[in-house]
Specification:
The protein has about 400 residues and is an alpha/beta fold. It has a domain of about 210 residues: Spore Coat Polysaccharide Biosynthesis Protein SpsA, Chain A (Alpha-Beta Complex). Helices cover about 50% and strands about 15% of the residues. The chain has an 8-stranded mixed sheet. Helix 8 crosses helix 13.
């Protein structure tokens, strides 16, 4: 086998493992654990035994969503005298602080300067007095059982963080942004369910996650993916991140692919930053299975896979015309045609991106392409230092 073939197949294996092989590994591991391990039973806690919690919402100019969000929080199935409401509105100049102050049981912290979500979180955590704090975004709805499910998981002293499930509103027909984002998060949710059952979820999403208050450590003020860094640092301290699909946050998809790309680029820049700040987690001799999960679920996707996807195309073409291939040239022709088909469907997805269609799977190649394109653009933005810590909201449907 030539050196080009070794490189080509190495790239293919890494790409396959990152998006499918790791899922297969989790699935097999879960089946073995269920076969030989003990199944844990969740015991519902009586209301009088439930701990007090703080619902923590950091919001910037979210006046249009505040009343809906607060009513949603009031609707949660949890004793009302055991929920504290804390809002951070730093930098908001649309009347958000004044609107929130009409709620007598809501504590509002406001500073006129806008310094980003993580600075507001660092400041606000000093005011949290309950043993559990639950973070949620202003523009997301929560499942009624969310807080109760989170608290049940945190009964286990080995659990330090609970990641909520992120859902996207869907319909029979959808555009590329809605279909792609919805399908992606269903796939991610399944991975998280398996990870939680096996050991620990790899990171939490800011739409909904909870931690033990005592485990919070101030995060660097320029941090872009605060939810990911906070949750994984807790895991690195020896606690697990757990997951329950009934603890969920739901929101609308991005208005269009352009808005989704804008969001993905920021996340990608934050991914590179997170890799540097969590570099110790790449050592499996210290962190064991947690490191393997992190490398499999996040690190490969954020680093090698986008590069390998770009390189396998010319390598494949080179192998077709090479006389020194170990395997049949026909295999490389088939693989090359499959890549052509993938990019053809990506183009079709682009052309139909703003049309609502029933067969949403058509948009998968295009969304996958956009995800990996955003890694290049996010990397450039991070290197240039042009990604602000202040979140620029994406327009949503």
């Amino acid at each position: 086998m030539s050196s080009y073939e070794i490189i080509f197949w190495s790239f293919i294996i890494v790409i396959f493992y990152s998006y499918a092989g790791y899922a297969i590994l989790l699935f097999i591991s879960i089946k073995l654990k269920r076969l030989f391990g003990k199944t844990q039973q969740n015991i519902q806690i009586l209301d009088e035994d439930l701990p007090e919690v703080t619902m923590f919402v950091a919001a910037y100019n979210e006046k249009d969503f505040i009343n809906t969000k607060q009513k949603d929080l009031y609707n949660l199935d949890y004793p009302k005298d055991k929920i504290h409401y804390l809002w951070l509105t730093d930098g908001s100049d649309d009347g958000s602080p004044e609107l929130l102050k009409k709620y007598d049981d809501v504590e509002v912290l406001h500073e006129p300067e806008r310094r980003g979500k993580i600075n507001a979180m660092n400041r606000g955590m000093k005011y949290v007095k309950t043993p559990i704090v639950i973070f949620s975004d202003c523009n997301t709805g929560l499942g009624r059982q969310s807080v109760r499910k989170i608290v049940e998981l945190l009964r286990n002293p080995k659990v330090g963080c609970v990641a909520g499930e992120k859902r996207i509103y869907s319909s029979d027909k959808d555009t590329a942004s809605g279909a792609g984002e919805g399908l992606y998060w269903r796939y991610e949710s399944q991975l998280k369910r398996w990870e939680a059952e096996l050991s620990s979820v790899i990171g939490a999403a800011g739409e909904l996650f909870a931690i033990r208050t005592k485990l919070f450590k101030e995060v660097e003020p320029d941090t872009l993916l605060d939810d990911f860094v906070i949750s994984l640092r807790i895991a690195m301290d020896g606690y697990s991140i757990q997951y329950d699909p009934d603890a969920y946050a739901i929101e609308s998809a991005s208005l269009n692919v352009g808005e989704e790309l804008k969001r993905k680029i920021r996340i990608s820049a934050g991914a590179i930053q997170s890799i540097l700040r969590l570099s110790a987690l790449l050592n499996p001799f210290k962190y064991g299975w947690l490191s393997i999960q992190y490398i499999s679920h996040k690190f490969l996707r954020w680093t090698f896979v986008p590069v390998f996807l770009f390189l396998v195309f010319p390598l494949n073409l080179l192998l077709i015309f090479s006389d020194n291939t170990y395997l049949s040239t026909h295999i490389y022709i088939v693989l090359f045609l499959l890549q052509i088909l993938f990019y053809l469907f990506s183009l079709i997805g682009y052309l139909l991106s703003n049309r609502k269609i029933r067969y949403k799977f058509i948009f998968i190649p295009y969304y996958f392409f956009i995800m990996n394109l955003s890694m290049y653009l996010g990397f450039l933005r991070f290197v240039k230092g042009t990604q602000s810590v202040n979140w620029e909201k994406s327009k949503r449907q």
